[in-house]
Specification:
CATH topology of the largest domain: Tetrahydropterin Synthase, Chain A
Number of helices: 5
Order of helices and strands: HHEEEEEHHHE
Radius of gyration: 27 Å
Number of domains: 2
Shape: elongated
Distance between the termini: 78 Å
Structural class: alpha+beta
Mean pLDDT: 79
Strand content: 15-25%
Length: about 160
Amino acid sequence: MAESDIQNENPAARRAVQSTSLVLTCVASLALGAAGYMAVGTGQIPGLSGRTGAISTTAAGKNLQTTTVFLALDPFMVTIPRTDPVRQLRLELQLEIPEGAEAKVRALSPRIEDTMNTYIRSIDLSGIEDPDNLLRMRMQLLRRLQVAAGDGLINDLLVTQFLIS
């Protein structure tokens, strides 16, 4: 109660306390924002790396441009079950891989095709026209192919043709 009496009697002290708390809040916000930016930018937070796959950094801190190549996979046809009339999905995909890894990825093509067959046939394709389903399917397929190939061989999966007939 004594504190409220002091603040009511001295408006200058009250303004000083308010402005000090405002300045401290702004400084703390800036410091936390800068710390978050640095943590993401340096890759200290897993899964939120600020770097893309196209640039790598050496120990000296120099940026080196790494090149990627696109490996076209054989066209892939799937019959969509539970549709009347029976429909088919034709997929053409390309894998974004590091340069020089073509031979390794081609050697894994049976495993890659098996992973694609297993996943595509296990999902419900009845609502395939929904654009969200294509994005979800692409992300799931990319993750499964990355796990199947291992060693960071697959950077991205590109859908070059998605045809329902």
